[in-house]
């Protein structure tokens, strides 16, 4: 579970609680989601009965999914009960009982009670985050006569079980709200209770962005420690490197070989054993903005600044940022040992020459122990030119494969006999840990023991990892498209097309129809099945590995037109959203990927959007304008002609547009807006703004060859500073 996330499970009986579920899903949960967003928390509500019209489908077929979702939602649970006990399954699969031994004692219980037992009653830690709501029995009298029987039990046995269940809940000491009168009152109770939880756990204080980023990279590292099979020689080589005075060490190996897992496991162990050394881990691709080289350097310098008390400004401009990074490393080296790990250089966004490592100093100070990793490509080519030492991660040998098979399946209480282990371990493809883990994930959920050998052979016939993932996607289609045709293709294509991933809420909206989100019961089985293939980064769901991205592209997005359609679909979706960080990040990027230059031009011509995007990342806005002007006849001068013509009417936008013109070589327009800024600041007496405007205007005149005019303005600027 993400450290700043709330995933709440909603449990209720089926036929009599549809109005309550609708009240929560349509009116209450959106309010709680908005509150969470304002406090940098990801909100997800899980109601597997929402939108389903068949009780047996909702209850009987998804019990394993319910129990697994409850685990993933802990410690957040909402239980709603009226006068129905709920559906009691005829039987529970033996395989599920073997996994959940406590079920043996509850074979005659309703699915609702099983959820409550599993989610709350056998887990006292739930006390602060689980809430129960009992409806007033008199509510039934307000209903039409023909509906009343749907809201109460007719069997005495079930009536008694319901009374006993409610007593257990009351006796547990958990919060119980008694006798809510209608769905609207329930909604207000839930809103108050969950608001209190959110405010208690995540008080409305400004969170240091560095802390948030550090948590993301820490969580990624911890996620790579589960069932790690590594060679001691790798750890010894990393230990020896840190003790030496050599230049950076470069970890190499084929994709999926376990470079990130090695670095994560080693770094966590080293930090534990050397508490006085500063260890900074940056896993490129582990969080939404970790692939941006400028964001990465600012994060590393920010950590150095606060941990080592380096008092130095962190600039924004690329050239200044590169120079500052080198200076920060030199200053850090005199403070003590710094271990800096940067993983997956090959995933850096191709901006400002980042893959060519123009930001990385050619010589690293002695007390800075830097460890890098990369796949073949531009970053590794540059590292090879520098002649830095390498550590190659070799494929798994036969014994390592057998050990991984046994340990990996054991965590799911699964096992294979020796012959099957030998068959899998002897296959050439399973020397790659990613291939082997993906294969084992498929086998652990395969239900037919009689056909297991056939399934093993089928997956082992895959020629490479993308081919294996294509077969896995086909299996998803067979298992999870019964109720929603095309779910796998649509969901995976949307994730592929997203810039940094999609939240569950965004996915549900996009996968729904007629303005209604997709029912949770259709999505959860697929999401749970693919939990080793999909990863949540700050609440945004993306692919765990680029191999899955390649498989999705090969299987579902075979033509450029297919890809453009997906990008256009996402652009349309975000265009309907309020002006927020997600829209600013995704919409223009999607339009650029779709090559919809007219729409991108119109979007950036919208002044409120332009200003918000400029504040978020002015370098990106300039890049979008460059793409527009290189691929179409549209030009920024035309887009902002109203600002140029009447700057006094657009004072909130003049400064950023003037800077855009100046930094993209449109000096005539920059000069015109600069003069209007000077006039405005003279009238208002804003000396700071006037000084900056005089300096900018002097630079423009200098570039235009008017040295005397530039000098005169610089003198005015100097006078203001005295």
Describe what this molecule looks like in 3D.
- This protein has 722 residues and is of the alpha/beta class.
- It has 5 domains: 5-201, 3-Layer(aba) Sandwich (Rossmann fold), CATH 3.40.50; 209-392, Rossmann fold, CATH 3.40.50.300; 398-461; 472-558; 594-721, Serine Threonine Protein Phosphatase 5, Tetratricopeptide repeat.
- It contains 34 helices and 12 strands.
- A 5-stranded parallel beta sheet has the order 2-1-3-4-5, sandwiched between helices. A 5-stranded parallel beta sheet has the order 7-8-9-6-10, sandwiched between helices.
- Strand 11 and strand 12 form a beta hairpin.
- It is globular, with a radius of gyration of 30 Å.
- The two termini are 56 Å apart.
- Mean pLDDT is 89; it is low at 55-60.
Itemize the secondary structure elements and their pairings.
Elements: E1 5-12, H1 18-38, E2 42-46, H2 55-59, H3 63-73, E3 77-81, H4 94-99, H5 111-121, E4 130-135, H6 145-148, H7 156-171, E5 176-180, H8 183-201, H9 209-223, H10 232-243, E6 249-252, H11 259-273, E7 278-283, H12 293-308, H13 318-333, E8 338-343, E9 368-373, H14 378-386, E10 390-392, H15 398-410, H16 418-425, H17 433-444, H18 452-460, H19 465-480, H20 487-497, H21 504-511, H22 520-529, E11 534-537, E12 540-543, H23 546-556, H24 560-575, H25 581-593, H26 597-605, H27 607-616, H28 618-631, H29 636-639, H30 641-645, H31 651-663, H32 667-684, H33 687-703, H34 707-721
Parallel strand pairs: 1-2, 1-3, 3-4, 4-5, 6-9, 6-10, 7-8, 8-9
Antiparallel strand pairs: 11-12
